[in-house]
Every structure is written in C-alpha cells, then in structure tokens.
Amino acid sequence: MAPRPETDQPGQLRATFRTRAAADDAVRRLHERGVPESDIRVNDTDDRQHMLLRQQQLESDRSVPVTGSNLFTPAQAKGAFRWTVIGGVAGAVVVGAFGLVFSLADFSRLASVAVLAFIGALAGGSAGFTYGGGRQPELDGEVRDPSVDVTVGVRPRSVEAARTAIETIEQTEATDSEYETTSADPLAGDAGNTTA
Known about the structure:
This protein has two domains: 12-62 and 149-195, no CATH class; 74-139, no CATH class. Helix content is 52%, strand content 14%. The chain is built from five helices and seven strands, in the order βαβαββααβαββ. A hairpin with a 2-residue loop joins strand 3 and strand 4 (69-72).
C-alpha cells in the first residue's frame, strides 16, 4: 500500500492533567516544539466531555466481571471481599455470644449460639460488604474528582505537527491521553491510542 500524502488531515490529540501547572507545562513544551497557539485548546468543553466519557469507559473496562456484568472496580471487589469476611466473623462472634446468655425457644444453648452466630455473620457480612466496597476505592486512589482535571487539546494542521504533539504529550505528566484519528489521517494505526 502506497503511503498517503502529507496533505491528509491529521486527527486530534487530547490529554488530561491533574493540575493546572502540569497542563501549563505541557502547553509550554508544545510551544517550544513549534506547535502554534492556534492549534492548542485548554479546557475546551467538547474535549473535557470527551475525556470524561473516555475515563468512564476505561473504568468500566477494568471492572471485575461478576455474573456476566462489570459491576466492580478492582478496589471495590477487594474491599467488598475483605470486609465481608471481617464483618461476617465479627458479627458471628458478637451476636453469637448472646446465645451464651439467651436461649432461643426450644433450642439448646449450642443451637442458640449457632443460629445467632449465623444471623450475626449475615448482618456483619452485609455491613462489611457495603463499607469495604465503598471505602477501598478511596484508599487505593480510585476515587478522585475529575472535574478539577485540566484538558489540553491539540488540533494540528499537519501530520508533522501531530507527530510532534504526540511525542511531546508522551513526555509530560498527562494522566490520560488519546489521539483520535479519522480515515483520512495518515497516522491512523501509528499512534498508540487511536479511535476511528
């Protein structure tokens, strides 16, 4: 297949940064590499929305499959499992201890302890599941406010400018980046992260 002419329209690059300083540094680097100001956008509404949707999709893609659907992120699954076990054991011990003092109807003391321990394990496990599934993502850094992220977009006018922008963004503190191509883009398939 013959190479496409350099006059083909390049795609666009979007990158997300956690701080304004990191985004400003990326813009400065782009300028130093010759990318004109007119090709760069910071916090453009369409770019921000696109990257937020992309981040949601990435989170969904790395979710743990449970019964055929992606319900949990890795941290949610880890926390839910760990705290279900902890809560179940604690509930069984605490509530089961009441069986040593109170006997249920016609049950023997041992049967009362077993029934109350089972009920306690269910209650404690349920509470642990809820707590662990919600708390562990915070501890593992999965939970953060993406509304404070800064998005830098580059719509290069030439293929060479697109290559320069991609190389430059790869050397910055971008937490996520995407080079979106079109069928007319000669870089389609060359860049690591492309969409049609």
